[in-house]
Amino acid sequence: MSLTALTARRVLVAAMVTGAALLAACGDDPSSPPPGAGDPENISRVTVTLTPAGGGSAITSEIVDPDGTQLPNPPQPPSATLALTKGVTYNGTITLLNDIQPSNTINITDEVTDEGNFHRFFYTITADTLAARDSINIPPPDNSRLVTIGNLNTDTQNPAQPLGVTFTVTVDAGAPSGNTTLNIQLHHFEQAKGTGLGTVFDTDLEVNFPVSVN
Predict the structure, then answer these.
(1) Measured in Å, how far apart are the chain's first and last C-alpha atoms?
(2) How many CA atoms lie within 13 A of 103 on its CB side?
(3) What gap in Å lies between CA 11 and CA 22, rounded to an integer?
(4) Could you read off the pLDDT of 10-62 as tens digits, one per residue?
(5) Among residues 137, 203, 138, 213, which one has the least CA distance to residue 182?
(6) Average pLDDT rounded to a whole number, residues 169-198
(7) Closest listed residue to residue 167, CA positions, set 85, 48, 44
């Protein structure tokens, strides 16, 4: 399966996390019916893995959509909170699978990589509830200012542009303790994406993973 087919076929990736839902198809009419559960372009599992750059155990969380179509079976909540440690940099990876039929698992991440000049992942840390407010009710600093995401791997354009199948997460040693959210979006461009910052694109994926900083 080539992701060039996404311009004509429906890729419905679903993820509903704490009231946030996502998804739309790549270049198709959102009012059209979803594909069958056996469609190889369905994404049934999104996995984020963060491994400390200096060594240590990896942190993993995943969102599973049992039939790869959002409905009738809604996506499951994230399997774990991504627990980050202050002062640590993590090497991150994202994996998209269609494993609805375990005997025929399809790695959609490979297809995104093959069509990297038309895709870009976006990673955004946003603040949910952070450490308790102080005695005069001034909120603590926003974690998003002290947890940074960068070093996205690149596509094959000249000059190369961010793709984001791999990335890094750096937690400042002075980051406040608290909870936040990692929002991940995958944008698909009908034409070569350039920098990937254009405003004309389809959103193939949007998921939210809970994050804690301690």
Answers:
(1) 42
(2) 0
(3) 12
(4) 333 333 333 233 343 354 333 333 333 344 468 899 999 999 999 999 999 99
(5) 213
(6) 91
(7) 48
